[in-house]
Amino acid sequence: MSEGGYKFFDQGGVYFVSFAVVGWVDVFTRKEYRDIVIESLQHCQREQGLIIYAWCIMSNHIHLIISAKENNVSDVLGNFKKFTSKKIVAAIQSNPSESRKEWMRYCRQSRGIYSQQRKRLLLWNTMWGFKSGIFILIANFVSP
């Protein structure tokens, strides 16, 4: 993620977005970390006007088709990623049965994904986004 935020040129558009955990670490194989993502998405729907058309949580990345009621998709997505990053990293560190926590920390540190502004390691890699017209073309191509 760039420190300047996300650049969606049409804040009212419908977008396919995908973002991965730093180093493609399989964080979401554990239910408690998936639940943080789901609860955060639900919060963004209730409190920030996020509209979710489709979603998929994979073992190490997330796909969403989204828009925002207030035409502020950049702000909503930025808030979601900032909150989930902090919450998941804290959950990993405080989970006594998480055997991979040091390895996960090493993966984030070794890739240098660090927020200079916030002085902390980040969970999420840079995301990719496609405006609805592009995604619809792809969806129609792969649909039965």
Spatial strand arrangement across the major sheet: 2-3-1-6
Output mean pLDDT: 75
The end-to-end distance, rounded to whole angstroms, is: 35 Å
Number of strands: 6
Percent helix, as a range, is 40-55%
Proportion of residues in extended strands: 15-25%
How does the helix and strand content classify structurally? alpha+beta
Give the SSE order as H and E letters: EHEEHHEEEH
General form: elongated
The radius of gyration computed from the alpha-carbon positions, rounded to a whole number of angstroms, is 16 Å
Spans with pLDDT under 50 lasting ≥5 residues?
Answer: 113-121, 127-144
Main beta sheet strand tally, sense and closure: 4 strands, antiparallel
Supply the number of helical segments: 4
What does this structure look like?
Mean pLDDT is 75; it is low at 113-121 and 127-144. The chain is of the alpha+beta class. The protein has helices spanning 31-48, 73-94, 101-110, 132-142; strands at residues 15-21, 50-57, 61-68, 114-115, 120-121, 124-131. Helix 1 runs antiparallel to helix 2 (73-94). The termini are far apart.
